[in-house]
Amino acid sequence: MIKHTLHYLWGKKFIILILALVLILLPNTIGHGMQVRTTTVITEMVIERTGNEIQITAQKFKPTAGADSASYETVTYQGTNIRQMLSNVSLAHCTKIKFTSEPDLAILHDLYHYQDLRGNTLINDAATINELLKNYDNILH
Questions:
Q1: What's the N-to-C CA distance of the chain in angstroms?
Q2: Sign of the four-CA dihedral 127, 128, 130, 133
């Protein structure tokens, strides 16, 4: 009986492989928390530079269990290096960046290489980060 069952299962290698993968990966999927609970997700930010000091006032997505609509919370970051300030946040959902004065190209260059920042993020509601930096690079050359 066992020999017959093993022979039958050996013929169904693909199904056994799928079941093994499900058994291995399912506990990890169930136990893995939502990214938004472990990582700060920024949706909009206002950047102000005073000398070397940079202040960012950002709108952070706030997860709420069972809510029908999204809720947000304001967070503030201060420092001199924008990449260090935003090292533990996700900008994948950031759609707007506002500067209190003219866009700071040094900050934009640092943000351009930020891993999560979207190419269609609007700067001061006028142009995307890609367009601003492309226009600036064309003027220099």
A1: 80
A2: positive
What single DSSP character describes residue 116?
S
Q: Tell me whether strands 122-123 and 127-128 are parallel, antiparallel or unpaired.
A: antiparallel
State the pLDDT at residue 65. Answer: 63
Q: Which is it for the CA torsion 77, 81, 86, 88, positive or negative?
A: negative
Name the packing angle between helices 105-112 and 129-140 (round to 10°): 120
Mean pLDDT by runs of 10 across the 141 residues of the chain is 76 79 71 58 89 90 68 88 84 86 82 70 81 65 41
Residue 40 burial (CB < 10 Å; 0-12/13-18/19+)? middle
For residue 89, give the nearest of 38, 52, 50 by alpha carbon: 38
> pTM for this one?
0.63
